[in-house]
Amino acid sequence: MFLGVELLNKNRLHLMATRSLERESRFLEERMQALKLLRAMAQYCPEKVPRTLIRSLVSIATHRDDQLKEAALESIREYSLLNTRAVAECGGVSAMVRFTE
Q: Measured in Å, how far apart are the chain's first and last C-alpha atoms?
């Protein structure tokens, strides 16, 4: 899987995943698939996850009316155990503290 993460980053497919995450709520299925991709990347190679994806998750987690808010918060929590520095640099710690209900 490490090679797969490298190929995704090399081909800049993380930008497509970021775009999918930030689409409107009516594209929920596409957004969920992008979130699954991010979680798989984080599980297998946490140091290779691009900051753009983490920032996108933080943005979703801080938006009150987003359908993926809870899933994004959970993903940030999981990823913070794997790469605390990246989560802190992208504002994830603040999002976890402020928006966890």
A: 34
Cβ-contact 2, 45 below 8 angstroms: yes
What are the CA-CA distances from residue 33 to residues 7, 17, 39, 85, 94 (Å)?
18, 9, 10, 25, 25
Local mean pLDDT, 10-residue blocks, the chain (101 residues): 65 84 91 91 86 93 91 94 95 89 66
Q: Give the whole-angstrom CA distance, residue 27 versus residue 89.
A: 28
d(CA 44, CA 38): 10
Residue 42 near residue 82 (C-beta atoms within 8 A)? yes
pTM, full prediction: 0.84
- Total residues belonging to the chain: 101
**Other Cβ atoms within 10 Å of 64 Cβ, number:** 6
Closest by alpha carbon to 75, among 101, 100, 28, 42?
42
